[in-house]
Amino acid sequence: MQESVESVVRMLESYRGRDKVIRTVCYGSQLVGGVLSQRPESEASSRRLGNSLLLFSAQLSHCRTVLRLFDDLSMVTYSHGYGLGPQDEDWCVRWISVLTNVADQLYYPCEHVAWAADAELIKVKSDKWWLVSDVLWGTSLLLGILRSVRVLLLLKKKLKTCGDSGGRSRLRSQMRWELLSIVSSAADLSNAIHWMPPGFLWGGRFPKWLVGLMGTVSSLIGLMQMQADSA
Fold first, then answer.
1. Count of alpha carbons within 13 Å of 171, Cβ hemisphere only?
2. Which residues 6+ apart lie within 8 Å of 144 measured at CB?
3. Rounded distance, CA 10 to CA 57, Å?
4. Exposed/middle/buried for 118, CB within 10 Å: 0-12, 13-18, 19+?
5. What gap in Å lies between CA 76 and CA 67, rounded to an integer?
6. Closest CA to 181 of 141, 231, 137
7. How far is 38 from 32, CA to CA, in rounded Å?
């Protein structure tokens, strides 16, 4: 019990860990709130609780947006450190990663402008900036899925030629994590498309609980991966 509490504390003390926890609580609240808010009028107390959870989720989402105002420099540092990728890495994985870094780097300033417009700090319409941000986020997620698929194919080839049982076990573990990454990115991509203008695929058609479900699935996988990385 004490180890679990200490693990949670360590996670909350780091920016990346705290963001993942806030994200999970945010989408979890939206999932439960979305379900409860659709209860019949006879269950007024459940509906009120659901609406409160939706408001709580919106506040946490706004909190994450404000905190991302300070992410640009760390993203620049990461992109600069990766550059064009290690020369011994597969060329397809390298270039997909480079394009992903470009999309992520452009995402932050666009979101900052949209946030500043909503906060009435600058006099521009925020709608188009939120749209550009969503497109960049969706592009990054799609590239992430393509990268994981490519990595899976490479791992599968290695698995066929690997004779060491320990090596095969490690390769299978890596393949499972890549599959989870695909599920996580696909869940987020479904939400990114939902936030596109109506008429584009299923833009605007998800109920609140489904947005919460997709985000919760993605967030829980992110927490699992973070725990595995720190182990």
1. 18
2. 100, 181, 185
3. 23
4. middle
5. 16
6. 141
7. 10
User: Which residue in this structure is represented by tokens 């550059």?
Assistant: 83
Distance CA 1, CA 13 (A): 19
CA atoms within 13 A on the CB side of 22: 20
Residue 78 is encoded by which pair of tokens?
Answer: 């990461």
Spatial distance between the Cα atoms of 99 and 128, rounded to a whole number of angstroms: 22
User: pLDDT tens digits for 13-56?
Assistant: 888 989 999 999 999 999 999 999 987 775 788 889 999 999 99
Tell me the C-alpha distance between 104 and 68, whole Å. Answer: 12
Query: What are the structure tokens assigned to 25, written together?
Result: 């609580």
Q: Phi/psi zone of residue 8: left (φ > 0), alpha (ψ -120 to 50 degrees), beta?
A: alpha
Separation of alpha carbons 22 and 88, rounded Å = 37
| Amino acid identity, position 84 | L
Question: Does the global pTM surpass 0.85?
Answer: yes
Beta carbons of 104 and 142 less than 8 angstroms apart: no
